[in-house]
Amino acid sequence: MAVQAPGIVFDAVSKKFRRGEVHDSLRDLLPAVARRVLRRSTAAPALTADEFWAVRDVSFSVSPGQTLGIIGHNGAGKSTILKILTRILRPSAGSYTVHGRIGALIEVAAGFHPDLTGRENIFLQGAIMGMGRTQTHQKLDEIIAFSEIEQFIDTPVKRYSSGMNARLGFSIAAHLDPDVLVIDEVLAVGDYAFQRKAFGQIQVLARSGMPVVVVSHQLDRVAELCTHALLMSHGGVVCSGAPTDVIGAYMRGVGSAGAGASESSPLTMHAAELIDGNAVPSGGSLRIRIQGMTLSEIARHVEPVGIIVRSAQTGEVVYATGTSVFDLTFPIGEFVLDVELQMNVQPGIYLVDIGVWDRAGETQLLVGPSLNVRVVEARTFLGPTNFNSNMTLRQT
Amino acid sequence: MSSFDHLMMTTPSTIALPRRGVLQELGEILTDVSQARGLIYQLTLRDIRIRYKQAAIGFAWAIISPLVIVAAGVIVRLVMVSMAGQPFGMANAAAIMVKSVAWGFFAAAIGYATHSLTSNWALLTKVYFAREVLPLSVILASTFDSLIGAGVVALLMPFIGWTPSWALLWLPLLVCLLFSLTLAAGLFFSCANLFFRDVRYVIQLLLTFGIFFTPIYYEPAALGARWIVPQMLNPLSPIVEGLRLSVVDGHNLLETIRRASDGALIWSPLYLAYSAVWAIGGLLVAALVFHRAQFRFAEYV
Lengths: 396, 301
Prior knowledge:
heterodimer; A: alpha/beta; Coagulation Factor XIII, Chain A, domain 1; 6-stranded mixed beta sheet; 17 strands; 33% strand; B: 13 helices; globular
């Protein structure tokens, strides 16, 4: 298992698909053959009218120990990348390298046959995923124990509930011992308890040092699991970097960012920075320093610096405040505003948007700087909000 | 098995798209298939298990289907001999039995193989493995069925007055040719059916009426001397005729047979050579076509 260097390298990979109906009867065979012969002579990677790029010129690499999260809207090309990685699809252009055996946590129960028992399906699915029979034998007890369906393991899978199906499928896939791990939207299998257990297992795998690629819409999971992230849109890479920033870019919709000021805004903001970095424990303090300039007198109905905190997972506004609450007045000229927020929320990614609002007209006058914050686990409370409880115990 | 695991763990796979030589591609196919031995075993086991698991009569199926083919053959043959005013000999019965097992294998294997890719579309689009495994494993499962059928025939043969001879040594070669031809057709049709869904109707037609275009219930000479060679153009014909001549008649297939009355060429080793070209050449071509097409399976299925 001597794997050094990047485990996965994608070099300018593109993949085109055909839109609409594909010829699939013998009647279409002759024209299709003729077309193929003609196309081979031209051999240009250009698109014909009914084709489109599902993945366009995507490059990245993942080294051992790195976990790459790929996010983006539906149809952005995320799953196509995973299918190219797992060799199901062949790229139309570009090349890629994968060192070692790929373990895929994708549609974990795809190979199950309904008439076979759970135990028989473990061997079948294991073989489909590239596990040898001796290896499956060795792992059998572990797989069954992890799935927690011991008492039904000799029952045909068609009698399983969908949750049991998913549990068994995940357990097999999670015990593959691959060199490279690929995960597509299986972070939500089974009930809550099993989801936590499965996620824990994925974390163990991801931190064991192999390169991992994750595709998911559960952004907080991506933030928790990944060391890097890649945002895709319409087949292309929009941005890549630290998961918190990439998720922030995704949530805001990169295109609409930086809409700028309207003429009626009485002040501008140049910069906003997180004084202690972008990670803060749940319940801890987040300190923001905002620099700006007041241009004209501020009307009573204008909120000079408003702050809105949204959850990246749900998009919901979890908190909003503004300088007017604190009766701050802004004299004309440069200013520095220090803000402290106690992040009494559950771990996850939060987006802090800063701007100028007109409370009378309920319009935004200035789209100011945006910050991405990652609230990490601190184990001080459960539930969505922190009530900052105090407890004292007296002996009576 | 452990060496196989080791192999899979350490082979880096770089996928660029250079044009490769045919020999190199054939080597690639062999490596793919041999690395997937474990999967072939599991899929074959799956097919055998599900075929017998829920069926009310279980393993009797393996005997009943060749029995039906044999019974139909006996009736057809009885009609033929009674119209010609000849007796129905035990050699006729033995020939029908042996050839029916061969045809039963061919028809069942092609039937299952044609659907093997399309019925596993969920797997094709979700998991990568050597795609050859799917048609190969259903053909192996059919081989298992046919071996049961062949075993029953072998048990019955002595009771209808058959005695073994040295010509039985031809049997392994003929079986290999039949398997190779079946595999070639299975690979090709499974692939074709994935791209063109009406292939299955063509295959259905072929399997329903093919038995009348292949000398299973009759000998090619029955149509007259002129029609022997055209019938032998069907690559399956020399194989089943070879089975009849060697297994039932105890004939050495290297020797030519001419009918004394009109000099009709009933058997020539060239017939068998012709079939061998189809079986081996067909397998090579089908494997290459399949291998080249397999990267488009997930897009078209």
